[in-house]
Design goal:
By secondary structure, the protein is an alpha+beta fold. The protein has helices at about 5-20, 30-35, 65-70, 70-80, 100-110, 120-135, 200-205, 210-220, 305-315, 360-365, 375, and strands at about 20-25, 40-45, 50-55, 90-100, 150-155, 160-165, 170-175, 230, 240-250, 265-270, 270-280, 290-300, 320-325, 330-345, 345-355, 370, 380-390. A hairpin with a 5-residue loop joins β5 (about 150-155) and β6. Bound molecules: zinc ion. GO terms for molecular function: tRNA pseudouridine(55) synthase activity.
Length: about 400
């Protein structure tokens, strides 16, 4: 039962509160909605009415008007960084580091109004930026394996910076060789004997490799100077490479965003053709295994009269091929093997096979391989050349 004395204390207190000034806390619409939803809130503390209001004017108690003043500029900044990807939408991640004052302001308000279990300011900033960037750019958010990561750092005075960190980017390249004598890789330094008789152009032409041409293109067209090439096998310097071209992979974590106006353009130089295409990290796995159609010109030790027997032996090459690489047995497969032509001691073969089989070794090298053409034909065979006709 409430006594008269109690009632008078409550009445007294109410009078005091009413007579005291009202303390108003301004919040921007983001901070208000995040903490209070749609309800109006006020509490009485120490004879002061504290009233929270969602105000479009004034300074937000929590974010100091970060959402209204800085947010649009930040979105524009990230959008413009991503707009440099013209052909490709990288997967991205966006994170925020906030000055401690933002958390303190919000915690102060939450303890006063006993607000629990609501997302905090950092959560809201991150979700808003991610959603807007996804909608504006078409880039998908990927927390696990982003290709570009943005880190927004906001100071107490609302100054901010946006750092972007690129992970590795990938290009799928394909090269074709229409002239014999072009090596895949650059010569090692020891071999590279500069001869003063050549002028620079001639020297470059004589020393051009697939690797040097790739590096020239990446540097001159894409402005990428640091890169790593992963080959998917190789051929002889004197082999031609035709059809779709041999695939290779370029990895770079270069920070220079590239303008890809030459996307899927074909670059040609002196018997080499190269094309590039940007791929995501998921595409990388599948490019290392493929089949190739190989034409081999052999010179046999002696002329063969029984061509039927020879054809049978050649078709017997179909099946698994086993050889050792770094103390491991590797198995590849031959799907088709046939003779195209026989002229005296010269025999031309066509083989449909997995990539990765060392072809000169397969014809009759010193290192063990099973089967080996020289052994199957029971005579020494010399490889005049082999060409890669197509990649499937
Ligand atoms: Zn605010």
């Amino acid at each position: 039962m409430v006594s008269d004395r109690h009632l008078s204390i409550i009445r007294e207190r109410k009078k005091k509160i009413e007579s005291n000034c009202i303390f108003e806390i301004n919040l921007c619409k983001y901070c208000y909605k995040r903490n209070f939803g749609k309800k109006n809130h006020s509490v009485a503390r120490h004879f002061t009415n504290i009233h929270v209001q969602s105000a479009s004017r004034g300074i937000c108690f929590i974010c100091k008007n970060f959402f209204h003043e800085k947010f649009p500029k930040i979105i524009d900044n990230i959008k413009s960084q991503l707009s440099e990807f013209t052909d490709y939408r990288p997967n991205i991640e966006i994170g925020t580091i906030l000055n401690y004052q933002f958390y303190e302001n919000e915690d102060f308000l939450r303890s006063m109004f006993q607000i629990r279990g609501k997302p905090n300011i950092k959560y809201e900033i991150n979700s808003l930026i991610r959603k807007m960037i996804e909608n504006h750019t078409g880039c998908k958010i990927d927390h696990v394996n982003p290709e570009v990561k943005f880190e927004l750092v906001v100071q107490g005075d609302l100054s901010y910076s946006i750092n972007s960190i690129n992970k590795e980017f990938y290009w799928l390249g394909r090269y074709r060789k229409f002239r014999r004598g072009i090596p895949q890789k650059n010569r090692t330094k020891g071999e590279n004997t500069a001869n003063s008789v050549f002028d620079e152009k001639e020297y470059k032409c004589r020393n051009q490799s697939i690797e040097s041409f790739i590096k020239d293109i990446m540097s001159q067209t894409y402005n990428i100077n640091s890169l790593k090439i992963s080959w998917t096998g190789g051929e002889d310097k004197n082999s031609l490479v035709m059809g779709k071209g041999r695939p290779f992979l370029i990895k770079s974590n270069s920070n220079s965003y590239c303008s890809n106006k030459n996307y899927k353009d074909i670059f040609t130089s002196n018997g080499i053709e190269i094309e590039f295409e940007r791929i995501g990290h998921k595409g990388v796995v599948s490019i290392h295994r493929y089949k190739q159609l190989v034409r081999i010109l052999l010179k046999l030790e002696k002329k063969i009269d029984d061509t039927t027997d020879l054809a049978e032996k050649v078709s017997g090459l179909v099946g698994d091929v086993r050889f050792r690489v770094k103390n491991k047995t590797v198995t590849r497969r031959i799907y088709e093997a046939k003779i195209i032509s026989i002229r005296d001691k010269d025999v031309e073969l066509l083989l449909n096979m997995d990539n990765g089989v060392p072809i000169k070794q397969f014809i009759g090298g010193k290192d063990p391989i099973e089967p080996c053409i020289s052994e199957v034909l029971n005579m020494r065979c010399e490889c005049i050349y082999f060409d890669i006709i197509e990649f499937t």
